[in-house]
């Protein structure tokens, strides 16, 4: 019989001894789990692999804008862009051929080229004759060609390739070539690029986001929520749900797979990182089983808030974000575990995040940790300082 215990220790922030230990032996580093969506965490992830090769990144598959929207509409697949970009951020940059793979996966076709030109470029890639793929060594080259060939064979002749991400086209082909499942192709490419960490979608399901605004409006689709591809929402978000499709309000949900539950429950540290507050962070916490798995984990949970202006956060103070984060996790329909869903609020020691309510934080059992996290203006988190701060918790 085994039991879980919470062990308290004196914490130094940052802790140079722990940081040095992890940096010296990253292959034995802690299992830090991030609930993240878009590109906001990619720079931190790229630095984080210097300290541990065991970070876990659960990313949202609900993106519905840009070239991802065209692929989703054509094949009814989960969004693959965030998976692709996070895999590249975690790739072992010492592996032969890696710069060429990175260049291919991050390349986008021209937005102003004629359709025939783009079709010809895709054909070159499939044949292995394009400059971007010629220098990639086998077996990686032939694997990429196979997945691109599947995508090429399945897209309609009128499919708009302008601005398409080559990496997304490769991932889409892998999905179509593996019984409409993302996990096998993500695992395969993780091995090929020697990813120094683990990347998965929270759900391997093709769903979208829906929100109700304070003014009563209903908005469907991640791309209409972020305020980046469309106008900023006319009213603050009141609540959010997972939705079937983009045409009608059809709330739904799915239970996360057992391997996701295990990853959450056994993480040495859980981090709620910067990123679009609703479409990247809270969206990741909504699938059934996520909240219960978080509260079944006795280890520290840390919230690192956004800097600057996030259009999705309009109307939300720092304290309201903390409360909404915790209530989203605690709203899981499954039986809650015995442990907290948030322990620490990690803040830069000089940045103004807004007023903090010490009494409310005390009632929520959330401790504020302030330490230098920013080194430049305009204000951006320093990747090394963030990594060292997070690793000081474990």
Automatic annotation (TrEMBL):
Q: Which Pfam families match?
A: CofD
Supply the source organism's classification.
Bacteria, Pseudomonadati, Pseudomonadota, Gammaproteobacteria, Oceanospirillales
Report the PANTHER family cross-referenced here: MATERNAL EFFECT EMBRYO ARREST 18
The lineage's top-level taxon is Bacteria
Q: What is this protein called?
A: GAK system CofD-like protein
Protein's organism:
Marinomonas pontica
